[in-house]
Write a structure and sequence with these properties.
The longest helix is centred in the N-terminal third of the chain and has 19 residues, at 31-49. By secondary structure, the protein is an alpha+beta fold. Helix content is 30%, strand content 28%.
């Protein structure tokens, strides 16, 4: 499965008073640095979860198994479906008798004219709800990066075991 999103957003969107309190900052001298950490936390969360979590518009390319294609559970609407042709071009199709079957973090998209083994491209819109859990992970990551800012160039590695644990819980909620 290939999931393509446009642009990266984050759980924490601004360098605000809440973030300043979390980092115990009393002025704006490190604002640019912290904004880079905000962006890095969004990238980390998306890479860990394996999907462009913060992006509502996605293109998903996946191979059909039987009469179904697997899509992320958060997909609200499928706007366009394309079927890959033998000459490697995409042909827009109109799915017939569509059924969504949710399970875990994924759902099956069943349609009568989806063929086993064929590759399909879906342009979808998702409902994005940034949960308190993901926001807490972002604060945790930003705080860890800010705390380790002095050691970043000294052959050290920042570990995020607590963040990974929380993101593992989030995967079941997506």
């Amino acid at each position: 499965m290939t999931i393509i999103g446009t642009g990266t957003k984050t759980a924490v969107t601004t360098f605000d008073a809440t973030l300043k309190n979390h980092l115990r900052l009393f002025d704006d001298s490190d604002q640019t640095l912290v904004e880079h950490y905000i962006s890095a936390s969004g990238i980390y969360i998306e890479k860990y979860l394996g999907i462009p979590y913060f992006n509502p518009n996605l293109t998903i390319i996946n191979r059909a198994i039987g009469c179904s294609v697997e899509l992320p559970k958060s997909v609200a609407t499928v706007t366009t479906v394309y079927e890959r042709q033998s000459d490697m071009t995409w042909l827009a199709i109109t799915p017939t008798n569509v059924v969504f079957d949710n399970y875990g973090a994924w759902m099956n998209y069943y349609a009568d004219n989806i063929k086993d083994g064929y590759e399909y491209k879906f342009e979808v819109t998702r409902t994005i709800t940034i949960t308190a859990l993901v926001k807490e992970v972002a604060y945790l990551l930003i705080g860890e990066m800010y705390e380790e800012r002095q050691n970043m160039g000294k052959n050290t590695k920042v570990h995020y075991p607590q963040a990974n644990l929380l993101l593992d819980m989030e995967v079941t909620l997506i």
